[in-house]
Design brief:
Elements (H helix, E strand, L loop, with lengths): L12 H7 L8 H14 L3 H10 L7 H22 L5 H11 L14 H12 L9 H12 L7 E9 L1 H8 L1 H18 L5 E6 L2 E7 L3 H18 L6 E9 L5 H28 L15
Antiparallel strand pairs: 1-3, 1-4, 2-3
Length: 294
Amino acid sequence: MKRRTRGAVTLGVDDLLERDPFRFTRSDADLRRLEAEARRTAASPYWYLLRALVGVGEPMTERDARALWREILSHRKKLSASVGRPLPLRATAIDWLYLLDEKDRPIRPVVVSRAALARVADEGKRDALTGLPRKAYFEVALARELNASPFVSGSLVFIDLDGFKQANDRLGHAAGDATLRRFARAADAALRKGDLVGRLGGDEFALALLGVEPRTARQIVLRLRTAFERDCAREGVSFSFGVTELSRDDTAGAALARADAAMYRQKRRRKKARITGASGPSGPKHSDRRGRRR
């Protein structure tokens, strides 16, 4: 399958500000078109818009997401009228969320610098320990690729570290944190520009290898595992993984669920192989009274 060479989805501050659909002030007509496009391409359009806009982390129903989206648009209209010019949607969204828990919401703008906005947006989308995108933003980026035109197929990989909890308990949390950072560095080194990597939570990660068929994806991940096991020899940590092919009709959630199921199948096989290897083909061996094995 042809490898894709177009620009990387780095998911960092620069990428967010340069490619973000909310970067510039938009007219009401522009926002209506953006909303219509989300309804056409995303399974949960208003939840998708809110995550792309402000990185909302708490799950909510599509009905609640739509209501919050409408409130933000209404708040933008009021704030724009108060200052006499159209205001960026994200600035007014942050203002609205900041005031959401206050009993009386004064109609006033919160002045946010570009640097502060970039810092807040990046911190909300990246995992502080590994520097990788969080699950919510990884799903947004994956959904963007699935809805891209033209669609480029690829492979999604779900990874779960093996032996991490035991190493964490034995060596301490600092060693566990170092192991997670080692995996993040190894994954970043193994991927190409345009591929996606994210930390889903705990010791679970996901990779989207765009333009790569599953067979090749498995070879890439096996090389990654070899490098990771070498770096974590003292900790004795490895990982199991599952691969699924991405299709045009996929949603991010459905693809992750398939890859997760494939990962658990491999984890069970690896555990069974370790048990069989430890006991041997004829079961555990016993020593006689002279210490010889029989």
